[in-house]
Design a protein that fits this description.
By secondary structure, this protein is α+β, with helices and mostly antiparallel strands. The protein contains six helices and nine strands. It has one domain. It has an eight-stranded antiparallel β-barrel. The longest helix is centred in the middle third of the chain and has 20 residues.
C-alpha cells in the first residue's frame, strides 16, 4: 500500500509562505493559474472563481520519469507500472467563499485521467499487463489465462483504489487558506506553505489549460 499513498499524496503536492490578507473578497472572482516545477515534475493548476460562488477546478501533473518510477514498488522483473511515464489531469465543478482572511474552496464531482485513461480502466490495463508478465514467468499457457488475469486485476485494484486516487487529486483545493491579493497576483497560505497564482491573461507563459480535455462526469 505504500506506493499507493505515495502517489495519492503526490497528486496534491502543490507547496504553499505566510502572508496577510489584502484586497476585497469580491476581487477574488476570476480565472487563476499556478505552476510549480521541482524534481518530481511540473504541477499546473487552474481555478475559475465565479462571482456567484461557483467554481471550476482543474490541474495537471507531468511527473519526471525518475519520480514516476519511484512510485512503482511492484518490484517484478519485466514489469513497470508506468512504462510511458505518468501524466495526471483532473477537472470538475466546485464552489468558493471568502470568510475574512480565509478562502474556502469545495470540490464537487471531479474526473481524473491517468495517462489519458480514467482510473478504473487505467488500473485494469496495468493489471492485464502485470498478469501477462506473471503468467509468462510461471509458464502458464496463453489460452485459459482469463481467470488469472481477472484475479490479478482485482488484487491490483485493492492497492490502487480508483476512488482514493480521484478524491485526493483535489485535496489541495479544499482546505481553507489565508489569502493575499496584490494586483493580478494571489498568494494562498496554509500550514504547508505558500502558492502563487496569477490572474489569467497576466502571466506571460502558462501551460495550456487542460479544461476541455478532462470533463466532469
Amino acid at each position: 500500500m505504500s506506493h499507493t499513498y505515495s502517489l495519492l499524496l503526490a497528486l496534491s503536492a502543490l507547496v504553499w509562505a505566510h502572508t496577510p490578507v489584502a484586497g476585497s473578497p469580491a476581487d477574488l472572482a476570476g480565472d487563476w493559474t499556478s505552476t510549480k516545477v521541482d524534481a518530481s515534475g511540473q504541477y499546473d493548476a487552474r481555478m475559475v472563481l465565479e462571482e456567484g460562488g461557483e467554481a471550476q477546478l482543474e490541474g495537471s501533473i507531468a511527473y519526471s520519469d525518475e519520480y514516476a518510477q519511484s512510485l512503482d514498488t511492484t518490484d517484478i522483473e519485466g514489469f513497470s507500472l508506468f512504462p510511458d511515464g505518468l501524466f495526471v489531469t483532473f477537472a470538475g465543478p466546485g464552489s468558493w467563499r471568502a470568510d475574512g482572511d480565509s478562502l474556502h474552496i469545495d470540490a464537487g464531482e471531479v474526473s481524473m485521467l491517468l495517462n489519458g485513461l480514467e482510473p478504473i480502466p487505467w488500473v485494469e490495463d496495468a493489471g492485464r499487463r502485470l498478469a501477462n508478465v506473471l503468467a509468462d514467468a510461471l509458464g502458464l499457457p496463453v489460452e485459459g489465462r482469463e481467470g488469472f488475469e481477472a484475479n490479478t486485476i482485482a488484487a491490483l485494484m485493492t492497492q490502487l483504489d480508483p476512488d482514493e486516487l480521484t478524491g485526493l487529486a483535489v485535496q489541495s483545493f479544499e482546505l481553507g487558506k489565508a489569502w493575499h491579493l496584490e494586483g493580478n497576483e494571489l498568494t494562498l497560505t496554509d500550514a504547508d506553505g505558500t502558492s502563487r497564482w496569477l490572474r489569467e491573461g497576466a502571466a506571460s507563459a502558462v501551460q495550456a489549460s487542460t479544461w476541455g480535455q478532462v470533463k466532469a462526469r
